[in-house]
Amino acid sequence: MDRSRFVSGVALLLAVSLILTIQQPLNGQVSVSVQPETLAQAFVKAINDKSVDGRMKILHPKTVACVNSQTQPFFDWIFSRQFKYVIPASYKIKMQPSTGTAFSPAEVKFDFPVSPTHILQIDYSTRPFSSTTIVLSIVEEGGRWYEVLPCPQPEAVSMAKASEAKSKELEARTKRLAAELRDPLRAEIISLARDGHRIDAVKRYAAASGEDLVVADSVVDLLVPDK
Predict the structure, then answer these.
(1) CB atoms < 10 A from the CB of 44, how many?
(2) 165 in a domain, yes or no?
(3) How far apart are CA 101 and CA 112, in angstroms?
């Protein structure tokens, strides 16, 4: 992928999305009798509709049982970030077996209520020279595929809350900086991003403004959002 996203809470998000350490290369489709297209379709619809209810419906019942007043911020944090995506109809999916051991940063504790058996990968592009990959841990039960999210321990909930607070601060700062940006720099940044040079646009704004790459990336996202 030509473009890297600079987001806060990356370690925690990766721990959730890639909670299984893949010990074999993900090369090729898995031969199974039932492919999880229905799960992928439901996920994409929930994301594009920004529907928490739709998002919850694809979770395994034992994951749903983990959601309570104490753990809700963790799941809200995951969903709020996913709802920033706009997934086009041209998305592609791949499924591979998950072979590995549980992985998470030492300070973050997760417990899977059900062991995922496969990884569902959703790939899509929203503009030239840019692609996004979403990875879901899934399991088949009773003829239906479900996504499995972990039941978070207090440490993970606390990290999710802290990340969400930082994200809101970044959002507010980004909106102010984008509104204050004037030509000719504004026009130059927009032109670079629209011409497929988004990384150059981010670097150019960072160099001109003195902001770090996290802020610069967010400003460019506001100026030239995904379609």
Answers:
(1) 20
(2) no
(3) 12
Q: Is residue 2 part of a domain?
A: no
- By CB atoms closer than 10 A (0-12, 13-18, 19+), residue 198 is buried
Domain encompassing residue 192? 181-223
pLDDT digit string (tens) for 172-208? 999 999 999 999 999 999 999 999 898 999 999 999 9
Q: End-to-end distance of the chain based on CA atoms, in angstroms?
A: 18
Contact assessment for residue 35 and residue 74, using Cβ atoms and an 8 Å cutoff = no
Distance between CA atoms of residues 209 and 217, nearest Å: 12
Say what the pTM is. Answer: 0.70
Cα distances (angstroms) measured from residue 213 to each of 4, 99, 107, 170, 175: 10, 35, 26, 12, 15
How many helices (H) does the chain have, and how many strands (E)? Answer: 9, 6
Q: Please tell me what DSSP assigns to residue 102.
A: B
190 and 117 in one domain?
Answer: no
Could you report the per-residue pLDDT of 92-142, keeping only the tens digit for each? Answer: 999 999 864 444 444 556 788 999 999 999 999 977 667 899 999 999 999
Number of structural domains in the chain: 2
Alpha carbon distance 202, 220 (integer Å): 6
* Beta bridge mates, 151: 111
